[in-house]
Structures are given as structure tokens and as C-alpha cells.
Amino acid sequence: MKDDKDDAQLCGQWHRVCELAALPEQAGRSAWLEGRVLALFRLGEHVYALDGVDPLAGVAVLGRGLVGDAGGEPVVSSPLYKQRYALMDGRCLDDPALSVACWPVRLEGSEVWVQLG
After folding, report:
1. Is the pLDDT confidence value at 5 over 80?
2. Phi then psi dihedrals of residue 15, to 5 deg
3. Which positions fall inside the Rieske domain (predicted)?
4. Nearest-CA neighbor of 27 among 46, 49, 42?
5. 46-51, strands of its sheet edge to edge
6. Residue 117 gets which letter from DSSP?
7. pTM over cut 0.85
8. For the chain, what percent of residues have pLDDT higher than 90?
9. 13 pLDDT band (50/70/90 cuts)?
10. 3-class DSSP state for residue 104?
């Protein structure tokens, strides 16, 4: 069982998630990391990590969303209600009251690392 002290120890730590090759180009994948569902998106050599739970539906489906572009900004559209979330910061372009958490990502060689905070 986790307690608040365990969560505090995870804050700011980097975690290896997968190999870059495991992420398809221009698409998303879900990953389970430290009790969270993340939605990972690869656009070229850039990888983005958002909370995988759709805030309206309450289910982990964002990793299956459609990746696209809104005025030059990379976004994912929820497969359920179609809201668009910016991959850079998790804000919803269609409803300012909605957002999803966004996690820092770094590449080390061919490995994808995410910093949970």
C-alpha cells in the first residue's frame, strides 16, 4: 500500500517507459507507469506524454486518440467526445475548463523516459 510519503518520493523522478521504436509514428500508445495511465505520442523524434484518462469520460482512451494539427500545434483528439488536447501542455482547445496533465519526456539513446511529478 502506498502512502503520501511514497508519492513524494516519486515526485520529479525520471522513469524509463519504453524503446522509441515501440511508439508508432503519428500515433499514440498507452503505458502504465507508477499507478498512472499515460498516453504517449511520437511525432518524428519528439515524444509527448499526457495523462491517458479522458477528463469527460473518466476512462483511459487518449492513447487511442487521433493525432493531428490545429493551427500548427500538435494535438490529440479524444476518441470519445472529440475534444482536442495540445500535446505540448495538455490544455483543451475546445473547452478551456478542461485539461490533462502533461509530463516532461526525454530521450536517452533509443529509450523514452518520463518525469512524473
Report:
1. no
2. -130, 130
3. 15-114
4. 42
5. 27-33, 36-43, 46-51, 102-103
6. -
7. yes
8. 87
9. very high
10. coil
